[in-house]
Amino acid sequence: MTKFMAAYNDVHLHSGINYVTPSEKYLGLDIEILKNRKKIYQQVMAANPKRESRKKIRDFTPTGETIVECKSNPRDKRGQIKSVMAMVN
């Protein structure tokens, strides 16, 4: 379980928080990461305007405060472990 939690919090990029890790979000690193991504994206678009057909730039805005809900009983009726955490915006 410890390896899973480390991977979930420190490696896996989450779509609900604009593809940063929960650890990066918690530490406030997401703001700088998203600024850098936007800068790189704009440079690529300027260098290769025909490469990307999108007219609208992707959303690199930090998601703001994210609440993590912890369930008190992570097992369902069959004794199987349910999802323990759910990200809520």
Shape: elongated
Strand order across the biggest sheet? 1-2
Q: Biggest β-sheet: count, sense, barrel? A: 2 strands, antiparallel
Number of helices: 3
Fraction of residues in helices? 25-40%
Strand content: 5-15%
Average predicted confidence as pLDDT: 76
Number of strands: 2
Give me the Rg, rounded: 17 Å
What does this structure look like?
It is built from 3 helices and 2 strands, in the order H-H-H-E-E. It has 89 residues and is mainly α. The protein has a two-stranded antiparallel ribbon. The longest helix is centred in the middle third of the chain and has 18 residues, at 30-47. The two termini are 25 Å apart. The model is unreliable at 81-89 (pLDDT under 50).
How would you summarize what this structure contains?
The protein has 89 residues and is mainly alpha-helical.
Helix-strand layout with pairing:
Blueprint: H1 2-10, H2 22-27, H3 30-47, E1 67-70, E2 85-88
Antiparallel strand pairs: 1-2
For this entry, give a set of tags.
single chain; 89 residues; mainly alpha; two-stranded antiparallel ribbon; 3 helices; 2 strands; 37% helix; 9% strand; elongated; disordered C terminus
